[in-house]
């Protein structure tokens, strides 16, 4: 059957109408869905990646210089590795056990390798935990006798730094000289007291049968950390004169130049006279108070 042109026109109009209806229905449905989604609360979920953890060795108690690290003295702490510099820090207990503490550390502090000396697993206990463990390579320990007045006994403690002043006769013997011969010297121990042996332990030792006179002698000896040249100078000063220890501020590391003094310098030294200004020349300050101006003299 032959389709006439009018039929083609009718079919075309019907097809276009159907497409228009489909488009309208799709647009209507899409609008309804969008309106419905606006009424539904949207929850934002942030996904956080699990941080990469790294082991860090920390002190389980306060550690003092000269102590040998035992297994109970350290523990492992896991921390986030990102943004943390862990170079030079011990990660395993085996790295620290058997080493000697070079610097005091507090409980919870990270253990840096530079704060320890080499392991001394084969050394006898009395050598590992004695004064020898505190001596740096190339340095020497020297004990000097001091009195409560000259040695700051009761004030001085191991780890402090001192200057050493010596009083001696001049080379020709005509006058006495007082001069600081050594500066910024570290104190290793005082008598039987050191950084690695608490005072309570010392007092127990003294009460367990040690004679009082012997204890007094031992506690009046101060061990100092010296170079060979400093030890030579100190030994000579001990033989020709007397010594006095001068306590330094922990933050003061400056070395002062000094020519020393003698009796003539002390005799000629006069106190500077305090010169007071004339009372008639005092300055005045004007004060505004309650709308009135007052003049007040500055003393």
TrEMBL record:
Coiled coil: none annotated. The chain crosses the membrane at residues 9-29. Residues 54-117 form the SAF domain. Keywords: Membrane, Transmembrane, Transmembrane helix. Pfam families: RcpC, SAF. This is SAF domain-containing protein. It comes from Thiosulfatimonas sediminis. InterPro entries: Pilus_assmbl_Flp-typ_CpaB, RcpC_dom, SAF. It comes from the Bacteria. The keyword Membrane applies.
């Amino acid at each position: 059957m032959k389709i006439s042109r009018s039929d083609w026109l009718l079919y075309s109009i019907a097809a276009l109408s159907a497409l228009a209806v489909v488009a309208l229905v799709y647009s209507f449905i899409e609008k309804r869905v969008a309106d419905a989604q606006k009424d539904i609360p949207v929850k934002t979920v942030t996904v956080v990646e699990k941080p990469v953890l790294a082991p860090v060795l920390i002190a389980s108690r306060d550690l003092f210089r000269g102590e040998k690290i035992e297994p109970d003295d350290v523990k492992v702490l896991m921390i986030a590795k990102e943004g943390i510099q862990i170079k030079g820090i011990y990660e395993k207990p085996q790295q620290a056990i058997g080493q000697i503490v070079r610097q005091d550390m507090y409980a919870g502090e990270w253990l840096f390798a530079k704060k320890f000396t080499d392991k001394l697993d084969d050394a006898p206990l009395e050598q590992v935990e004695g004064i020898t463990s505190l001596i740096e390579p190339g340095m020497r320990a020297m004990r000097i006798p001091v009195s409560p007045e000259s040695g700051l006994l009761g004030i001085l403690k191991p780890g402090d730094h001192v200057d050493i002043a010596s009083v001696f006769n001049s080379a020709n013997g005509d006058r006495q000289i007082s001069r600081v011969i050594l500066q910024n010297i570290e104190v290793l121990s005082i008598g039987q007291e050191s950084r690695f042996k608490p005072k309570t332990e010392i007092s127990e030792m003294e009460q367990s049968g040690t004679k009082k006179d012997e204890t007094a002698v031992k506690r009046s000896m101060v061990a100092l950390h010296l170079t060979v040249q400093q030890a030579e100078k100190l030994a000579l000063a001990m033989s020709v004169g007397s010594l006095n220890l001068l306590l330094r501020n922990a933050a003061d590391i400056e070395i002062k130049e000094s020519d020393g003094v003698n009796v003539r310098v002390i005799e000629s030294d006069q106190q500077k006279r305090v010169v007071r200004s004339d009372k008639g020349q005092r300055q005045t300050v004007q004060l505004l108070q309650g709308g009135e101006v007052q003049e007040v003299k500055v003393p």
